[in-house]
Amino acid sequence: MAKVVGLGPSGSAFLLRHGRGFGVDFSRRYVKACGEAVPVETPMVEARYVVDKVRTFRFFLWDREVGEASYTKPRWYIVDKERWVESMRAGAPSAGGPYDVLVKAGGPYQSMGEKITVVRFYVEGARRPANEAVDFVFSRDAVGFYWVFPHGGVLNVGGGFLGVDNPVPHVKKFVEKWLGGGRVVDVRGAPLTVMPRVVLHDGEGFRIGEAAGLVYPLTGEGIRPGVLSAIALAEALSTKKPLEEYRRRVAPIVKQVEFQKKLLSLAVRMSERGGALLELADDGVLRDYIEENLSARTLLALLAKKPAAAARLIAALLR
Ligand SMILES: Cc1cc2nc3c(=O)[nH]c(=O)nc-3n(C[C@H](O)[C@H](O)[C@H](O)COP(=O)(O)OP(=O)(O)OC[C@H]3O[C@@H](n4cnc5c(N)ncnc54)[C@H](O)[C@@H]3O)c2cc1C
Fold it and tell me: Is residue 310 part of a domain?
């Protein structure tokens, strides 16, 4: 029997898959701020919670478009995360009692490592990105980005930046200046772990999802790694060496987290010198970014196409 602390996507997915346990959460409803974007292959996302599909990703350095990644088929779903998580919570076992496995799934409230506050606005009546497209807008003033995602008729617009405690005024200004206005109908913020320390077991219990540090520092993507880690642990618990098996199964996620941590540190160093990491990227890099597939191979491919840019990137990484 397992006790799960925290019933976001990770905790509720774990309970559903494990089937033997119960969960506690200090919020009666799941209402956390989010961009609500997941790659289409994210397990346990049912079609009825998908409110938009995304095929095109555009990247801007404020008003200058610097790249685009486009796919023939949808690459992301935008989901109604609250309804999706609530449905998983409702389907999960709920009776309490004695337990022999503790699982911490409290997201950024339990994670270790540097956190920032990220906010999202729902905006009505604003200029939308092109059909099935999302926009990422990087500013030169701080490391972080704004996003503009469709969300079932409204826009989900948000942002988060290193060193900015309250991004609300920044996102407000972004809506006015970049989007050209719109009616803000809801504002919500939450912490996000940007420099996570990955801890899969802390001596007291297992950790999954963002509580384990399984969130990607450059993109802020935490839903898919959370659900994948929940499934990995649920399955590992029925093996002879659960921790070893769990560690083995989430190794690719951990590798990507660690690589993105290095790139984020690099972005900070470049920003201190007035530069932007995005300027060194090309469409191939942006694709790997979207596919959470950034690796040394990405940089080698860049080296072949843009030797000067890649050499600067690799030199900065090694410094
Ligand atoms: C503004 C914003 C936008 C984001 N956009 C995206 C996005 O578009 N796509 C994406 O993949 N990720 C995004 N993320 C990250 C993503 O929201 C999280 O990484 C993801 O939800 C992690 O899931 P989780 O289940 O591990 O934790 P959470 O979703 O944080 O759930 C944790 C749950 O635990 C509960 N809890 C915490 N501590 C305790 C405790 N001590 N006792 C009881 N209950 C507790 C909380 O109430 C909560 O319900 C975004 C984050 C923010 C803040």
Answer: no
> Sign of dihedral through CA atoms 199, 145, 219, 41?
positive
Residue nearest to atom 13 of ligand 1 (CA): 221
Q: How far, in Å, is the centroid of ligand 1 from the Cα of 215?
A: 10
Mutate to test the pocket of ligand 1, among 77, 84, 109, 208 (most ligand atoms within 8 A of CB): 109
Q: Which domain holds residue 81?
A: 2-304
| pLDDT digit string, tens, across residues 129-178 | 788 999 999 887 888 899 999 999 999 999 999 999 999 999 999 999 99
pLDDT tens column, 291-317: 766 666 666 666 666 666 666 666 666
- Candidate from 81, 102, 145, 221 with most ligand 1 atoms within 8 A of CB, to mutate: 221
Number of domains the chain is built from: 1
What's the confidence (pLDDT) of residue 128?
A: 80
Whether 312 is in a domain gets the answer: no
Task: Please report whether residue 35 resides in a domain.
Answer: yes
Which is the closest atom of ligand 1 to the Cα of 188? Answer: 1
Closest CA to 177 of 146, 134, 143: 146
**Would residue 253 be called left, alpha or beta, if left means φ above 0 and alpha means ψ between -120 and 50 degrees?**
alpha
Q: Angle of helix 242-272 relative to helix 307-318, nearest 10 degrees?
A: 110
What confidence category does residue 32 fall into, taking pLDDT thresholds of 50, 70 and 90?
very high
Is 291 part of any domain?
yes
Which residues is 192 bridged to in the sheet?
116
Edge-to-edge strand ranges of the sheet holding 206-207: 21-24, 2-5, 101-104, 206-207
CATH number, domain at 66?
A: 3.50.50.60
186-225 pLDDT, tens digit each: 999 999 999 999 999 999 999 999 999 999 998 899 999 9
Q: Does this model's pTM top 0.85?
A: yes
Residues near ligand 1 with C-beta < 6 Å? 5-11, 24-27, 30, 32-38, 105-110, 118-120, 158, 190, 192, 209-211, 215, 220-224, 226
